[in-house]
Design a protein that fits this description.
The structure is a single chain. The protein has 184 residues and is of the alpha+beta class. The protein has one domain: YbaK/aminoacyl-tRNA synthetase-associated domain (YbaK protein), CATH 3.90.960.10. The chain has six helices and eleven strands. It has a five-stranded mixed beta sheet. The chain starts with 10 loop residues before the first strand and ends with a strand. The model has no long low-confidence stretch (mean pLDDT 95).
Length: 184
Amino acid sequence: MRAPIGSFDNALPAADRLDLLPAPVAEAVKEGGPGTAELIHVDTDPAIADTAAFVAHYGEELMESSANCVIVLGRRGAGTTPAACLVLSRHRVDVNGAVRKHLGSRKASFAPREFATGETGMEYGGITPVGLPAGWPLLVDPAVADAPWVLVGSGARRGKLILPGREVAALPHAETVPGLGLAP
C-alpha cells in the first residue's frame, strides 16, 4: 500500500497493525468507530519521532500535514477538565486563550507528562487523537479538520497514523475550535 502523503516504505491499514499500537489506540481501531475508516499506519523509526527530525528524514513536505496532539488541563475551582488539542505542527496551542475559554476554565495548562501518558495509555511524543479516554474533549484546529490528509502520532513513538482531516473532525468528542492553533 502507498501512503497518500510522504515517502514511507511501510504503510498498511491501521487495522492490520494492531500489534504496533498501544491498547487504547488498537481498541479504537478494532471498534471501527467514527474517524477510523481510512486510518493508515506507517511504520517509522522511534528514534526520529519528534517532528523536526521526522520531517528531515521522511520529507520536508510533511510539515504541512503533520499535527501534534497535546493534553491540557483546564481548572475552575477544585475541578479539573482534561482535554486533547490537535493543531498543525508548525503552530502552537493557544492554551491561555482558546483552550481556557472553550473549557470554561479560569486557568489552563499543559498536562504533566506522567498524567498525559498515564491517563491515555500512550507514549510521550506519540500521543494521538485516536483512542483517547472516554468523555475527553478533543479540540481540533480548523486547519487540521480542513487538511486533505493529516499525519499524527500512533500512540507510540514508533509509527504514525495518516487520516483525512474530515475524519479527525469525526473522532469521538471532537470539536472544531477556531483560533486553537497559533501561527509562530
